[in-house]
Specification:
eight-stranded parallel beta sheet; Enolase-like, domain 1; alpha/beta; 2 domains; 17 strands; single chain
């Protein structure tokens, strides 16, 4: 099954409400969609979001990386020779993890279609049902409480609360949400690198002393501050999760060896695609470190791929943060993984199961 063409297009999807973190504010998805075409007519789909504040990539850089560097390496190659083509993608250029991820996802889609089975099964999994949390953006306290209560009404039992602006305000936000939701939802906090190590320890201990149960606190300090991350991990009772500090397999292994975090957040866009995400999960599993499967602001194209990875490594990936499609105003994908609020159902169709994507715009 030869790859004969690689097409890129722009996908725009408005969000239900603006997405706010300590790093950025976004009101719509505007992602690059990759379509790999095989000589038998099959199409494989992938996607990459421009997340300059995290990966350093923009729409322009992702498009240029794919069209000028990655696509020329894979066109003419046999999609059935998965490991070889993955290697070509990863060695096409330095960095540009999201661009590589988009093509890697499309390749895995084609490969699984060639074998006539859902991707997650070919990757070793049998869990076709997942449950995701929902992100509560940074806002005024009353707004965040209302958003949390709305999430409960929609069936969510786990909330990821964005914080990291100001420790006093952040503590007040979390305490107010906990008072409103009680034990009806698990609380996960994401500081998005917004605190120093000492600020993080003080804030987390204040919440612990106030009796606020937290499933985890994600990336409380700057991505490069592994010493600070480890300091927080050692000085609080709440599990600490590495996100921006843990991009690929090498960084994850360093975090684990240094005891800098209790949990690893895997994201396809950080890892550079499915192949490296699986490697991260396997490394973490060998060291007894649990993982979360996360996503950026992505539509159900690439989030579907993340769901397949989570299903394939469900013994290690014990938490799921794949709410990108739920944050979107509508789903542009026909077929594929079904996202119904907190419930994620993987289809019994070959590959990712995507039949078509509506609203693609040429660059």
């Amino acid at each position: 099954m030869k790859i004969v063409a690689c097409h890129v297009a722009l996908l725009r999807v408005p969000l239900r409400t603006p997405f706010r973190t300590a790093l950025r504010e976004v009101d719509s998805v505007a992602d690059v969609v990759v379509t790999l075409q095989a000589d038998d007519g099959r199409l494989g789909y992938g996607e990459a979001p421009p997340t300059a504040a995290i990966t350093g990539e923009t729409l322009g850089s992702i498009t240029a990386a794919i069209t000028q560097h990655i696509a020329p390496r894979v066109i003419g190659e046999d999609a059935a020779d998965l490991n070889r083509v993955v290697g070509l993608i990863q060695t096409s250029m330095v960095g540009n993890h999201s661009a590589k991820a988009a093509v890697d996802i499309a390749l895995h889609d084609l490969w699984a279609q060639h074998h006539g089975a859902p991707l997650y099964r070919l990757l070793g999994g049998g869990c076709a049902q997942l449950t995701t949390n929902l992100t509560i953006s940074v806002n005024a306290i009353d707004t965040m409480v209302d958003d949390a209560l709305d999430a409960l009404a929609r069936g969510y039992t786990a909330l990821k609360i964005k914080i990291g602006k100001d420790t006093d305000d952040d503590v007040a936000r979390v305490r107010a949400i906990h008072a409103a939701v009680g034990d009806r939802a698990v609380l996960r906090l994401d500081a998005n690198q917004g605190w120093t190590a000492k600020q993080a320890v003080r804030a987390i201990r204040r919440l612990e002393d106030a009796g606020v149960p937290m499933d985890l606190v994600e990336q409380p300090v700057k991505a490069s501050d592994l010493d600070g991350l480890g300091y927080v991990t050692r000085h609080v009772a709440t599990p600490i999760m590495a996100d921006e500090s843990a991009f690929g397999p090498h960084e994850v292994l360093d975090v684990i060896r240094r005891g800098a975090a209790d949990i690893i957040n895997i994201k396809l866009m950080k890892a550079g695609g499915i192949a490296h995400a699986l490697r991260i999960a396997d490394i973490a599993g060998m060291h007894g470190v649990p993982c979360m499967m996360g996503c950026m602001l992505e539509s159900s194209v690439s989030v579907a791929a993340a769901a397949h990875v989570a299903a394939a490594r469900s013994q290690v990936i014990t938490r799921v943060d794949l709410d990108g499609p739920s944050l979107c105003a509508f789903d542009p994908v026909d077929g594929g993984v079904h996202f119904d609020e907190s419930r994620i159902a993987l289809p019994d169709t070959p590959g990712l199961g995507i039949r078509a994507i509506r609203g693609l715009e040429p660059f």
